[in-house]
Structures are given as C-alpha cells and as structure tokens.
Amino acid sequence: NVLRTYEDRPMQWDNWDIDVFYQRKPYEADWYSPVRIVESGDVCIVLEFSCGFVDSVVTQRVCLYHHLPRIDFQTKADWKTHHVLLKTHFPVDVNATRATYEIQFGNVERETTNNYSWDTAKFEACGHKWADLSENSSGVSLLNDCKYGYGIKKGDMSLTLIKSGTYPNEDADIGEHRFTYSIYPHAGRWQEAKTVEMAYNLNVPMPVKRIGKDAVKSMTVSFTATRRAALLRSSKRPRTETASLCGCTRIRITVSGHILRAVAPLFMCMNVTFWRRRKQNLPFVERPLKLYSNH
C-alpha cells in the first residue's frame, strides 16, 4: 500500500482528464506518523497511521482479519491541494498479460502490456467494485467501495483516490473524503476465489444495530441457510415504456426451480417486477438479495 501523489495538469478538461505524462512527477509523502494499534479483538487487528502531502493529511486504518484473507484500508483524507493526484500502488509478483475489470454487467479483460499504442493509452482504465490480476494458480484482486480508476501495468496495481482539478469547479475534491479499498490475494483465478462475492461483501456489509434488553426479549428471529446460489439478470426497458425518471429494471430470479421474491435495497430509484421464468444459466451475478419463498 504505497500512497503517492503526482502533479496533475492535463492539456484540457481539467476535472476529467488524466494525461499519461502525469507519471513524470511523482511525490512521496512528506511525513508519516508512528503506527499504532487502535483495535485488537477476535475479528481483526486495526492499525492506524497518518501521512502528509503538502497541506493535505491522509489517515488510514488498516484492518487485518483473523479469518478473512482480505486487508481493508479505511481512509480519511483532509484534502487541501489543487492539481495533485493521489493514488495507491500495490507492487505484485503476478505474471499476466491481461487484467480483468468489473463493469456494469459482467467484466472485461484489458492488456497489461504496452506493445501497441492502444494498450499504452490504457494506463488508466475504468472499473467498478473490483479489478483482478491472476495467473492460473494465484492472483490478487483490488477492491473498492467508490473509486473507479485503475491502472494495472508491469506488475503494479494502482487505484486513483483523489483528483483535484480546478475547472470548471475550482474547488473540486477539496475537503474531507472517506472511502475504503482492499487488497485480496487468492489461490486460483478470480472466478474460483469468489472475487465478485468478496467485493459485494465490502460494498454491502452486514448491518449491525445496537438495541436494548427489552427489545431482545420480545424479538423473534428466523434464519434460513442454503447452499444454493441465486443468479440474477437485469435489463432496462426503453424510456417510452415507463414514466419513471430513474428508468425501470426487471430482475429474473431462479433458485432450483423455486419462485422467489426479494427484499433488499437497490442501487437506484427503480420499479422492480418479478415473474416466473424457467431455470437458465446467466453469465454474471449481480447484487445479493434476501430471498423468501412464495409460500
């Protein structure tokens, strides 16, 4: 987890573009605070440290789990510096010519080499909750909860965290930021390692609520466990078929032939319709839902 800044002055579209020549002017942190242990329990050990870049301060809590092969970097940044790009880098010993990035419906592979001009232009590529670099026997996944600019070249996995341009918004990214990214080394390729599930677990953690003793006495809880996986497929209707400003999404759910209904928060405001559908194989898995039998 190498935090590094770069001078960021693109030729145009200041708050959007990142030009390849930004790599010519890297800057390490001006100072680091001593690392201290802020939590040590049955679930994880949490380390905290801070570092400074000119007038900006980044504080991180590093979560090391006892039973989960993932390291979380919970980050708080008080950013005050213009035209400076903040990135994190993970040098990895993985020999692969293609990396995999999650996109809105599935994933896409992109070259990690610079053999052609169009490969060189992909020094930064977009992805959603995860990106992965794997050989057949092992690999590393880079997960995040809100940062979508990845760079995977020559054994280096990077993620853009803050870009503080000045046009058209002269104070873009100035202020306090809170986000989390994670590194997930694994055996096998990302499919066998369940990288998609691990990324969802980071983005949609189990909610915990503190309640009083009286509420516990009167509370009835029922849990159902199953080894079956739910495959979800979503498709967006044309705008002419709905008056909803947010669009309309249909979701088909099949679990071994059972008809199910789902209760869960969705990504956007949308109308959701469930209907019977014969069992079929789908090429991707989207957001996990709480499932209940129709009867």
Structure write-up:
The protein contains 4 helices and 21 strands. Strands 3, 4, 5, 6, 7, 9, 10, 12, 13 and 16 form a 10-stranded antiparallel beta sheet that branches. The longest helix is centred in the C-terminal third of the chain and has 9 residues, at 195-203. The model is unreliable at 239-295 (pLDDT under 50). The N and C termini lie far apart (49 Å). A hairpin with a 5-residue loop joins strand 6 (56-65) and strand 7 (71-79). The protein is mostly beta strands and 295 residues long. It is globular.
Helix content: under 10%
* Uncertain ranges: 239-295
Topology as H/E string? Answer: EEEEEEEEEEHEEEEEEHHHEEEEE
Beta-strand level of the residues, as a percent range?
A: 35-45%
SSE-based structural type? mainly beta
Mean pLDDT: 81
DSSP strand count = 21
Whole-angstrom Rg: 22 Å
* Main sheet summary: 10 strands, antiparallel
Overall body shape = globular
What's the helix count?
A: 4
Between the first and last Cα atoms, what is the distance in angstroms? 49 Å
Secondary structure: elements and pairs:
Layout: E1 2-7, E2 26-27, E3 31-32, E4 36-40, E5 44-53, E6 56-65, E7 71-79, E8 84-91, E9 98-103, E10 106-111, H1 117-120, E11 125-126, E12 130-134, E13 138-144, E14 149-153, E15 156-163, E16 175-187, H2 190-193, H3 195-203, H4 213-217, E17 231-236, E18 248-254, E19 260-263, E20 271-273, E21 290-293
Parallel strand pairs: 18-20
Antiparallel strand pairs: 1-2, 1-8, 3-5, 4-5, 5-6, 6-7, 7-16, 8-15, 9-10, 9-12, 11-14, 12-13, 13-16, 14-15, 17-18, 19-21
Quick description:
With 295 residues, the protein is mostly beta strands. Helix content is 7%, strand content 43%. Strands 3, 4, 5, 6, 7, 9, 10, 12, 13 and 16 form a 10-stranded antiparallel sheet that branches. A 6-stranded antiparallel sheet has the order 2-1-8-15-14-11, with no helix packed on it.
